Amino acid sequence: MTAARALAGRRVLELADERGVYCGKLLADMGADVIKIERPGGDAAREIPPFWGDRPDPERGLFFLYTNTSKRGVTLDIRRAEGQRLLERLAGTADLVLETFPPGFLPGLGLGYGSLRERNPGLVLTSITDFGQTGPYRSFKSSDLAASALGGSMYVVGEEDDPPVKLAGSQTHMMASTYAAVSSLIALYRSAISGDGQH
Question: pLDDT by residue (tens digit) across 112-122?
């Protein structure tokens, strides 16, 4: 007998790069039906080493394989009208959309939260950005290295006289994804009670 999983029956659309794929994995591992939407040509995270058997191949990247367990996948070009219509239809059946685009990208395609919510008032949109959706730094670009430095973790790693050292792996992306998953769960709970989604 299989135990019921916390997010069984919930659908998540994931439009996330390496900054947010772990969030989708956490939700999938809790039972959500996570549909990973990849651009034509595939997610750039497929090229992140190391590769299984030390053979570079988009189907063998260990980071990609690990962060996409328990998900289904579809290729969709949301820059084209047909892809936008398909995404709108999928969002109409989803509980949550997870995205990592720059601020203003989805609204610029007519796929902002207001548009998606018209069809599905209980929809939750979780956005993971470098410096937020609003404010003076919203257009600034970041990386795992920059976030490690700005967040202070590099200050406590390594010796004082040595060059800067960061924690192994993509720790800031993993933490952003973890907090995004927790925030998403809170928003989904509120949506289940009130019927109102949120961004």
Answer: 999 999 999 99
Q: Mind listing the pLDDT tens digit for each residue in 42-83?
A: 898 898 899 999 888 888 989 999 999 999 999 999 999 999
Residues 73/60, Cβ–Cβ less than 8 Å: no
Tell me which residue of 46, 71, 73, 68 sits closest to 57, measured CA to CA. 46
Please say whether the beta carbons of 27 and 12 come within 8 A.
Answer: yes
Tell me if residue 74 falls in helix, strand or coil.
Answer: strand
Q: How many CA atoms lie within 13 A of 118 on its CB side?
A: 7
Separation between Cα atoms, residue 165 and residue 158, nearest integer Å: 6
The secondary element (H helix, E strand) that includes residue 180 is helix 171-194
3-state helix, strand, coil in the chain (%, to 5): 40, 15, 45
Longest dimension (CA), the chain: 57
